[in-house]
Every structure is written in structure tokens, then in C-alpha cells.
Amino acid sequence: MPDDVLALADRLWRGELGPADYHPVSHLGGLAEICDGVAFVPSFANVSAFRTGDGLVLVDTGSSFVAAAVHDDLRRWDSGRLNTAVYSHGHIDHVFGVPVWEAESAERGWPAPVVVAHEALPARFDRYVMTAGYNEVINRRQFGVDGLRWPVEYRYPDRTYASELALDVGGVSFELRHEKGETDDHTVTWVADQRVLCCGDLFIWASPNAGNPQKVQRYPREWAGALRRMIALEPEYLLPGHGLPVIGAQRVRQALTDTADLLDSLVDQTLTVMNAGGRLDDAIHGVVPPAHLLDRPYLRPVYDEPEFIVHTVWRLYGGWWDGNPASLKPAPERALAAELAALAGGPQALADRALVLAGGLAGSGGSGGLASSGGSAGSGEPGGEAALRLAGHLAELAWLAAPDDPGIGRVRHQVFTTRAQAATSTMASGVFRWAARESLAAEPAD
Fold it and tell me: Does domain 331-442 have CATH number 1.10.10?
């Protein structure tokens, strides 16, 4: 398995494999020894392990679903106790493995492991408890897992720090540094003697998760700065929170530089629109990510999308209003839909037009960009991604105007199924598939 993990990483880097062969947010399992005394477990959220003279140090501990499997994989590599666990950040796929190790320590009479994290992390756990219902809904929608239950009990850290923290465990030195990026509580762990950098989710073998439409604020400019500070360390091994290791100083530099350049470009372009008095709509359809960066095998929009990062930048620097005066104090969505449906000749007219726009697009693939349009030559009709976006609007309006009409529901189901099939990212496909399933709620029972 070690050779398999590293060989897979190399083939992905070279572009010999693509997202269909390996998605960075998936559980591969197994273990790779990266260098002497350093192991990497490729999981739904990866776990990095360091062997020391006084037991193991883990950076992240995995999700509750795979915690036991991660423990077993590591036990085949090392039998020492877990001395310290570092949370790279507080997302639940990274922080739920500690109880497995604690139970083992209690059974064997070992000292309990110590958990270390940034000082902002406990407040994240508190917020997760407060918003458990909301997080349950949005994560079911995002990942298509109807039975997902959001946890309300967490293993809080024993020790926190503000900016930087030096740890010495069993003769191995770890340098922890706080950064903001996907979250406000990120920790980067640097092991200088072996030139190993654990970056959490600041690099994930995909376009950065800086724009998740259902989650709290991200920090793309600060994220780019964090990446550039990581470059200055000159790491030889990059162990990310998702995806596979990046091995070799030149590759690590390139991966981090390209990611920072993508984020800076999106921020700069969005701020240009804002500073010129434009609307959010102008930014969404005017900001274009550098094509050469999206072509990188480690920056493809398979989880989040650059378009969503534009929204993040707008919200961070400009607030929630999109610049459209009608949306400042809007009419109820259903009232607007009913009015537009009446003007169009009824909800069915909107639904029929949505089907025309969406026709023949299933499985055609997404645009991968922000400003894509297109159409049939000389037809005067929108085509491609532009047509599919319009189809989504019209299908939604028809359904809002006639939510109990099974026929309208089937049209909405068809349109958003097509949208999901054309989407490249987990974020978009999750929302579209949720809408498609919701659309059939009005179907009569058999």
C-alpha cells in the first residue's frame, strides 16, 4: 500500500489520472511511510503520524466513521502510545479520532493523549452545538447523505495557543503556527528536521474550499498569504488534509504558489468590480480564473468552485447585499414567482421553456469557468452553461408558483438532475441533486 499511495500521487500530479480516478474528499485507506518516522493515512480527512521517543504525534485524527480503521492502519506501523494530537482545524472530519486512542490508553494504563489546537477552535465546537440542526441539514444536502446526524459532543483541546507554539515530544520538534484560510482556526505544523509540512485544508488537491455556499466565512486573501509563508519554509514533503502527499521541494513550491496565485487573482478581480461600483452579478459573471491554473491537476473545481469564492470575497469586504435594489427588501419568493408565471401565461409556460433550455445538455459537463455562455451558431438562443443556468431559474419559478403540481415537480426534477450531471464540484452537484429529489415530493403515493 505505501507504494500504491505514493505512485497514485505521482500519477495524479503528472495528469495521468483525473478526478474520476480519485476524488480528494474520499477514503482511500492504507498507509504510506513518507520518510523515516513519518506516516500518512489517506482517509476522508487525512491523518499524519510522527514517531517520537515518547510515543506518536498525530496531526488530525480522522472522522468518527473511519477512526477505528485509521487506528488499525497506524497500529500496523507503530505500537507506541498516542502522546499528542494536533487539530489542524475544527471541521468534524478531522477531530473525531481521539476517543479510540484514549480508550486504548486507558485500557493499557498509559497517560492520556494531549490535544492541541488554536485558541479559536473551542468556539467553533460551541457554534456547532448551537447550530446542530442547520449543520445537519446542509451537510445532508452537500454530501447526499440523508441519514447524517450532526454531533453535539466534541473532544475539546487540552492546550491552545494564539499565534505560534513550539512543541518538543520525545526529541522531535514541532512548530505550530496559526493561519486563516478555509477557517479562522487553522494550524500549520512544521517539522523542520525532516522538512515535513502538514497544512490541513490549506491545500486539498482541488480548487480551494474558499467559497462553500452553505458554510461560514472563508478568508481567501489571508489564505494566499498563509500559502506564501509555507513556501518560505522550503518544505520537501507536503501532507495535506485532503488528497495525497506532494513529494519534492519543487513540486511543493509549485502547488502552493499556484494555489496562492489563484486565490489572489479571484480576490483582486472581485475587488476591482466592487471598487468600480459594480454589483455582485457583475463579479460573478465577469471574474475569470486564470485558465492555466484551473488546468493544474491539483486545482480543478471538483469540490468547491472559483465562482463561489467570488461570493466569499463579496461577503467579506462588502456585506450580504448584492447591489440589486430589488433584493434589498425583496418580495416573498412565491409571490414573485406567481406574478411572473401569470405574466408568462402560467407556471407550465415557465416549465416548458425550462425544458427547452435544458434539452440535450444532460451529461455534457460543466464549463469549469465563471463567464461561460455559448449557443447554437446563428440561433440567437443561449446554449451550454448559460442555457442551463436560465433553465434552473425558470424551473424554480414554475415550482414556486405551483409547488403542488406533480408535472411541474417532474420538470424541476429533470432540470436540476441535468444541472447536477453537468456540475464539476461536490458543492454544486450536492445542491442540485437535493433540489431534484425535493421536486418529487408532490408525486402521489403508489
Answer: no
